[in-house]
Amino acid sequence: MNVVACALVLVMGMAPSSLATPSAGSDSLNSRRSQDNSVTRTRSESRHHDDDGGLFNFLFNLFFNDDDDDYTPVKSGRGSLADAMEKASDEHTGDRTVPEANTQYVPPRPDEIHHAPATAYHEKSTPWEELYDCLGLQFTSGSLKGGDYYGMWGPGGSVGLAYFKTKRPLRISAYAQYLNAPVQTTSGLHHSVRGGIGLLEWGVAVDVFTTPYYTFMGHYLTFGLGFPTMNWELRNTLTDASGDAIKYDDLDGVNGFIGMGWNPMQLEHFEVGFEARMGAIGWVRTTREGFHNDFFPTFKYVQIVSSVKYKWE
Fold this sequence. Notes:
The protein has a domain at 129-312: Porin (Beta Barrel). 22% of the residues lie in helices and 46% in strands. By secondary structure, it is α+β, with helices and mostly antiparallel strands. Strand 8 (193-209) and strand 9 form a beta hairpin. The longest helix is centred in the first third of the chain and has 52 residues, at 2-53.
């Protein structure tokens, strides 16, 4: 009898705490749901605000603004780039004054930090087996659609980030190149720009091989994404209302290409190859000096790239 009475007392004593536990868990769950809804609304508003800036501004801040403590100066309001090119032309006989730029200092975007829950790490097996890395030199020649340029050519280099042995061997490379595009003397651009235009570009390329990696010759498909900066020198210096001289200007863009490659020789440590590419370069809306880009259209091109690569494990 005493045992039964003690058991009843223990059960009654534990009941309040056991009943309070679901209530606390319910409050905690409701609190977490409220926080999640707040974060969702904040991120939605942030995404809506980012859309107003445009894709190119997002890419520019993502890849070029690497100092969170600095403010990025952005120029605008100088007017039409076509008018500036006309005033810089040798055939222009009037005033070469352009509007003064409006300089804004854009604060950096706060980074969103996502904290993953603390869970035990379990290493998973992967079918990807890294074979080797490579360092290459390349030379590019090609043509731009339109009659303003003689073509484009120039040197470059690449660094193999990884080369994996999968069902289809896969190579990921980072590249950089500088191409020169001389302007034809019969083009109207020849009267505004001295010499031609230059294209400084860096990007990432992915090669998917259709042949085994150990064969003497190889074939692959390639595609990539690059970020070029086009620069030029004006034939005649422009000035704005404050007296600032404008002699050089440049324009950022985004380059996408696809193509195929052929390696006539694949040795243990050396590789000789050729690629045929086609692609297009789209430009941002405003030049570095603040002119609205209504002059340069999207560049469509074809290229032949020859390369020599050194490989090591």
